[in-house]
Amino acid sequence: MIKVAPSILSADYLNLQRDIEKVEKDAELLHIDVMDGSFVPAISYGPNWVPQIRKISNLVLDVHLMVVNPERFVDEFADKGADIIGVHVEATPHIHRALQMIKNKGVKAEVVINPGTPVEAIKPVLYMVDQVLVMTVNPGFGGQKFLDETVKKIKQLDDIKKAEGYDFDIEIDGGVNNETVQAAAKAGATVAVAGSYVFGAENPAERIQAIKDATK
Ligand code: DX5
Ligand code: ZN
């Protein structure tokens, strides 16, 4: 069964504790989208949100850095309590260094690829990552439509994983619901981020279970 990472981007910020409590028992991770207004058009939140959230949640804190030159922020997010830090291959000429920095902090390292980026771009670093995030929308906003053409990249990664004996998780992010998750899970996705589908519902816990039930 797939693990679920609700994205707080779609939560009610003025009632964040209440919303996190709604997913705390059913989710495995909590996805924190950091946007700089440069790598992506929007600006969201920064490192200080992590220790605040840590105080009220035991979920794995999955930090997705959508920022230019993410290595500038790796140490701070690690020191502030991130459990996983994801860096985009498109955001830095030094993806290997960025991943090394994350690992040196004892934090799980994740490499991220946009819909327009081929798996080949991250092949040289797959040996060193704990998780690969395949963006299933163009990053920047919640509530977009899942891009079906990204599923073949999940399969490609799963094939490499098996052939090389790697054990990284494969995460999907964007447009995930109980329907779109099915093909992705079949192709090898092991973690599903979901924002609007989970927090847009009356009962977010039910939506998490619906994602899991769809991938049993
Ligand atoms: C998009 C973010 C996502 C976003 C997903 O740039 O990386 O994590 O919150 O939102 P939904 O699930 O609504 O597509
Ligand atoms: Zn994200």
TrEMBL record:
<feature type="binding site">
    <location>
        <begin position="195"/>
        <end position="196"/>
    </location>
    <ligand>
        <name>substrate</name>
    </ligand>
</feature>
<feature type="active site" description="Proton acceptor">
    <location>
        <position position="33"/>
    </location>
</feature>
<dbReference type="InterPro" id="IPR026019">
    <property type="entry name" value="Ribul_P_3_epim"/>
</dbReference>
<feature type="binding site">
    <location>
        <position position="7"/>
    </location>
    <ligand>
        <name>substrate</name>
    </ligand>
</feature>
<comment type="function">
    <text>Catalyzes the reversible epimerization of D-ribulose 5-phosphate to D-xylulose 5-phosphate.</text>
</comment>
<comment type="similarity">
    <text>Belongs to the ribulose-phosphate 3-epimerase family.</text>
</comment>
<dbReference type="GO" id="GO:0006098">
    <property type="term" value="P:pentose-phosphate shunt"/>
</dbReference>
<feature type="binding site">
    <location>
        <position position="64"/>
    </location>
    <ligand>
        <name>a divalent metal cation</name>
    </ligand>
</feature>
<feature type="active site" description="Proton donor">
    <location>
        <position position="173"/>
    </location>
</feature>
<dbReference type="GO" id="GO:0004750">
    <property type="term" value="F:D-ribulose-phosphate 3-epimerase activity"/>
</dbReference>
<keyword id="KW-0862">Zinc</keyword>
<dbReference type="GO" id="GO:0046872">
    <property type="term" value="F:metal ion binding"/>
</dbReference>
<dbReference type="GO" id="GO:0005737">
    <property type="term" value="C:cytoplasm"/>
</dbReference>
<keyword id="KW-0479">Metal-binding</keyword>
<protein>
    <recommendedName>
        <fullName>Ribulose-phosphate 3-epimerase</fullName>
        <ecNumber>5.1.3.1</ecNumber>
    </recommendedName>
</protein>
<feature type="binding site">
    <location>
        <begin position="140"/>
        <end position="143"/>
    </location>
    <ligand>
        <name>substrate</name>
    </ligand>
</feature>
<dbReference type="GO" id="GO:0019323">
    <property type="term" value="P:pentose catabolic process"/>
</dbReference>
<feature type="binding site">
    <location>
        <begin position="173"/>
        <end position="175"/>
    </location>
    <ligand>
        <name>substrate</name>
    </ligand>
</feature>
<feature type="binding site">
    <location>
        <position position="175"/>
    </location>
    <ligand>
        <name>substrate</name>
    </ligand>
</feature>
<dbReference type="InterPro" id="IPR011060">
    <property type="entry name" value="RibuloseP-bd_barrel"/>
</dbReference>
<keyword id="KW-0464">Manganese</keyword>
<feature type="binding site">
    <location>
        <position position="33"/>
    </location>
    <ligand>
        <name>a divalent metal cation</name>
    </ligand>
</feature>
<feature type="binding site">
    <location>
        <position position="64"/>
    </location>
    <ligand>
        <name>substrate</name>
    </ligand>
</feature>
<keyword id="KW-0119">Carbohydrate metabolism</keyword>
<feature type="binding site">
    <location>
        <position position="31"/>
    </location>
    <ligand>
        <name>a divalent metal cation</name>
    </ligand>
</feature>
<feature type="binding site">
    <location>
        <position position="173"/>
    </location>
    <ligand>
        <name>a divalent metal cation</name>
    </ligand>
</feature>
<comment type="pathway">
    <text>Carbohydrate degradation.</text>
</comment>
<dbReference type="InterPro" id="IPR013785">
    <property type="entry name" value="Aldolase_TIM"/>
</dbReference>
<keyword id="KW-0170">Cobalt</keyword>
<keyword id="KW-0413">Isomerase</keyword>
<dbReference type="InterPro" id="IPR000056">
    <property type="entry name" value="Ribul_P_3_epim-like"/>
</dbReference>
<dbReference type="Pfam" id="PF00834">
    <property type="entry name" value="Ribul_P_3_epim"/>
</dbReference>
